[in-house]
């Protein structure tokens, strides 16, 4: 499974969204999805770290990373 599909699965699981929720690179995250609060950010980051075997430092996290689904995927791809 590719990075984009895995990150989408992580978001759907963490935010408890329907499997058929439309998510693409332009999908806005922070401020646009009600379920995507600060606790969801922590849950998503933890799942990303576990799934991809990476470590994300606190200083790497910014609102820009979570601006859209595409920016989040790009961040993950840079880390792996």
Automatic annotation (TrEMBL):
SUPFAM superfamilies: ACP-like
InterPro entries: ACP-like_sf (IPR036736), PP-bd_ACP (IPR009081)
Domain named Carrier: residues: 1-80
Source organism superkingdom: Bacteria
PROSITE patterns: CARRIER
Pfam short name (any one): PP-binding
Listed transmembrane segments: none
Coiled coil location: none
Protein name per UniProt: Carrier domain-containing protein
Organism expressing this protein natively: Paraglaciecola arctica BSs20135
